[in-house]
Amino acid sequence: xxxxxxxxxxxxxxxxxxxxxxxxxxxxxxxxxxxxxxxxxxxxxxxxxxxxxxxxxxxxxxxxxxxxxxxxxxxxxxxxxxxxxxxxxxxxxxxxxxxx
Length: 100
Fold this sequence. Notes:
Layout (H helix, E strand, L loop, with lengths): L1 E8 L11 E6 L10 H11 L9 E2 L2 E2 L3 E5 L2 E2 L15 E6 L5
Parallel strand pairs: 1-7
Antiparallel strand pairs: 1-2, 3-4, 5-6, 5-7
């Protein structure tokens, strides 16, 4: 099992039943340390998302307007969807979209 901490803020937590943080245990079907953020997003959608998936995912990634940080670093600097998760990583999803 791969253990990661998921955090949701900026309104994203509302899509996850109000949860601001989740200690997730993901199956690591490959060799240890080979599960990617792409697989994490799919797992999160299937196992944690409570409502309005169109506000969180678009295809196999997060929709525009969702900022993703991996261990406090913008995921664009870490390889985005191809980043290989490590046990103990923290992945933060922050919604930058606000209604009005």
